[in-house]
């Protein structure tokens, strides 16, 4: 079955389920609201605060790595110049050059590990910031649910069709801005691993 047919089949099944559920929901007087989580994260003061702090942490990480990267680049160019026109045998016979190449390889490997560690720290920091954001969002969302007397909250991205009347995103953003305009974002650190022998 082609990908397009699978999508249409999935949409048809979802639509059939909505049609089947809609009469039961309206008969019971169920109130449904939708929220756009991406918009809340992007447009709220807390979400913008997280974005700014994460950008600052990313810049800090890059600034920490840059001197070593630049030094390795310069050293690599110098070694390439020294290797120019030499055969493998000539390089192998030059003990000083072999020592420089081995030291450079070690520094390059160490830098690769440092970059990987920094990337992992950034990912952990980003995840923790989102956990903190969701903790701040939860009570605000529950307040909106109570105000709207809603029994169901759906992600706008998971809904095939809805009217703007049931979208509570703006209300959630307004309340979140008032309750929590900033989120604590702290760079997560990974302890150094002992060097493998």
Protein model, in words:
The chain is rod-shaped. The chain has one domain. The protein has helices spanning 3-28, 37-43, 45-83, 88-93, 95-148, 169-179, and strands at residues 32-35, 152-155. The longest helix is centred in the middle third of the chain and has 54 residues, at 95-148. It contains six helices and two strands. Strands 1-2 form a two-stranded parallel sheet. Residues 1-27 form the signal peptide. This is Outer membrane chaperone Skp. Belongs to the Skp family.
**Helix share, percent:** over 70%
| Whole-number count of domains | 1
Percent strand equals under 5%
Straight-line N-to-C gap: 53 Å
Ranges with pLDDT <50 over ≥5 residues?
1-27
**Coarse morphology:** rod-shaped
Counted by DSSP, the helix tally is: 6
Number of strands: 2
Strand order of the largest sheet: 1-2
| Computed Rg | 28 Å
- Average pLDDT: 86
Order of helices and strands: HEHHHHEH
Instruction: Specify the structural class.
Output: mainly alpha
The biggest sheet, with number of strands, parallel, antiparallel or mixed sense and barrel status, is:
2 strands, parallel
GO biological process, one term: protein stabilization
Family: Belongs to the Skp family.
Keywords: Signal
Pfam family, one: OmpH
Write the layout of secondary structure elements.
Blueprint: H1 3-28, E1 32-35, H2 37-43, H3 45-83, H4 88-93, H5 95-148, E2 152-155, H6 169-179
Parallel strand pairs: 1-2
Concise account of the structure shown:
By secondary structure, the chain is mostly helical.
Characteristics:
single chain; 197 residues; mainly alpha; two-stranded parallel ribbon; disordered N terminus; signal; Chaperone_Skp; Outer membrane chaperone Skp
């Amino acid at each position: 079955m082609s990908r397009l047919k699978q999508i249409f089949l999935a949409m048809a099944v979802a639509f059939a389920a909505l049609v089947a559920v809609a009469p039961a929901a309206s008969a019971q007087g169920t109130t449904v609201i939708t929220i756009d989580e991406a918009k809340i994260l992007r447009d709220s003061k807390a979400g913008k605060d997280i974005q700014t702090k994460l950008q600052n942490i990313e810049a800090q990480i890059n600034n920490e790595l840059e001197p070593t990267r630049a030094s390795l680049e310069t050293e690599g160019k110098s070694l390439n110049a020294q290797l120019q026109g030499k055969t493998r045998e000539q390089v192998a016979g030059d003990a000083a050059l072999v020592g420089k190449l081995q030291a450079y390889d070690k520094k390059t490997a160490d830098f690769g590990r440092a970059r990987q560690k920094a990337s992992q720290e950034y990912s952990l920091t980003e995840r923790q910031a989102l956990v903190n954001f969701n903790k701040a969002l939860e009570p605000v969302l529950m307040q909106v649910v109570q105000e709207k007397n809603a029994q169901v909250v759906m992600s706008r991205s998971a809904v095939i069709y809805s009217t703007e009347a049931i979208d509570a995103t703006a209300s959630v953003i307004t309340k979140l801005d008032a309750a929590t305009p900033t989120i604590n974002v702290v760079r997560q650190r990974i302890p150094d691993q002992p060097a493998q022998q």
